[in-house]
């Protein structure tokens, strides 16, 4: 992620910090799924050290702390507001770009939910994580696939995240270094009363960090007409989520 994009993403998430937690119900489900996949995959109850990247308001952080005993946990985010998340779970806070900040050493767990789609090279991030883990360490990461917000792409929005990739790319990134315990993707379609409702949802969840668009009355009307034309249903207009995930273990 280059610096200007990181700045925009940071500002967007900082602005939405207060509304994010309740609005991000899909991200909450994804965090649940990641922790369940770790448990079902035989993750140990205790990790001596852990690092979570892009913790935000703590959907994953809280679930990790409820489910596992993590001796020394550090959580990271671009947005300084996320220091509150660290305080609420008694973790250390590392503010900055997950791609460039120095990570703690000797990590037993590296986790991240719904963040890697903001990186230009999610595979390089996963490789760095695989290298940073001690033998026997665990990796649990989710992102989003190419169908994420497909409706917005169709109607020409620039809000698309740069690092959308299919789950097979996540597995390929750690191939040869880690044993994949669980890897996959799913699709879930949510509905809103109107295209304006979609825009409000995006604002509340901070995902419009790359949209430089300034709406005018006519561009908003055109966006709404096209959205309803292509994606209007009897339940309202649709918005597609395409979460992807990988849980992997570094051989001991
Ligand atoms: C969609 S939220 C996910 C938050 C939380 N992990 C969850 O599951 O709800 C994405 C978070 O990643 C952070 N983020 C985006 N790009 C980042 C980067 N390059 N380094 C660190 N954090 C980043 C944002 O500030 C935001 O808090």
What does this structure look like?
It is a single chain. Helix content is 40%, strand content 26%. It has a 7-stranded mixed β-sheet, with helices on both faces. A 3-stranded antiparallel β-sheet has the order 7-9-8. The protein has one domain: Rossmann fold. By secondary structure, it is of the alpha/beta class. The longest helix is centred in the N-terminal third of the chain and has 16 residues, at 25-40. It is globular and about 60 Å long. The structure holds S-adenosylmethionine (SAM). S-adenosylmethionine is lined by residues 1, 6, 9-10, 13, 24, 27, 31, 53-56, 59-60, 76-79, 82, 97-99, 113-115, 118-119. Residues 1, 6, 9-10, 13, 24, 27, 31, 53-56, 59-60, 76-79, 82, 97-99, 113-115, 118-119 line the site of S-adenosylmethionine.
Q: Sketch the major β-sheet.
A: 7 strands, mixed
**Structural class computed from helices and strand pairing:** alpha/beta
Instruction: Give the N-to-C terminal Cα separation.
Output: 32 Å
Strand order of the largest sheet: 3-2-1-4-5-10-6
**What's the shape?**
globular
Percent in strands: 25-35%
By CATH reckoning, the class would read Alpha Beta
Counting DSSP E segments of at least 2 residues, the number of strands comes to: 10
CATH fold title: Rossmann fold
Assigned CATH architecture: 3-Layer(aba) Sandwich
* Count of structural domains: 1
Low-confidence stretches: none
DSSP helix fraction: 40-55%
- Overall radius of gyration: 18 Å
Question: What is the fourth-level CATH superfamily?
Answer: Vaccinia Virus protein VP39
This entry's quaternary arrangement is single chain
Tally of helical runs: 10
Give the ligands present.
S-adenosylmethionine
Order of helices and strands: HHHEHEHEEHEHHEEHHEEE
Could you report the average pLDDT, rounded to the nearest whole number?
93
